[in-house]
Design a protein that fits this description.
Blueprint (H helix, E strand, L loop, with lengths): L2 H10 L5 H8 L12 H14 L5 H12 L4 H8 L3 H21 L1
Helix pairs in contact: 3-4, 4-6, 5-6
């Protein structure tokens, strides 16, 4: 393959660079909406679920800290003086409650 063929092949390879992906996904005039960001969408879902009594505030915070902020469940457990398995189970129950509530809609 010559240099021109390599350049064409490289141009077709998707980039792992987020800025590159966003640039290709939207035109320069299109604005981002809050629904475009999964973290914002999950945050809003958790807020609504707490307001509706689907999950407790502490469980929503656990989901947000571990799923959005990327904190390790073991670190959160240590900070709260709990065993990691306790928080893993609590998070799983809360997430299942969210799924069940969503399925009921």
């Amino acid at each position: 393959m010559n240099a021109k063929g390599v350049a064409v092949a490289m141009a077709a390879v998707p980039s792992a660079e987020p800025a590159h992906q966003l640039a290709g996904a939207r035109g320069p005039t299109e604005a981002h909406t809050p629904g475009d960001n999964p973290a914002i969408e999950l945050s809003e879902l958790l807020h609504d679920a707490v307001s509706a009594g689907i999950v407790e505030r502490d469980d929503a915070e656990l989901i947000a800290r571990s799923r959005i902020a990327g904190h390790r469940v073991a670190d959160i457990a240590h900070h709260r003086g709990l065993r990691p398995r306790t928080l893993w189970d609590r998070r799983q129950r809360a997430e299942l409650a969210l799924v069940a509530a969503r399925a009921a809609c």
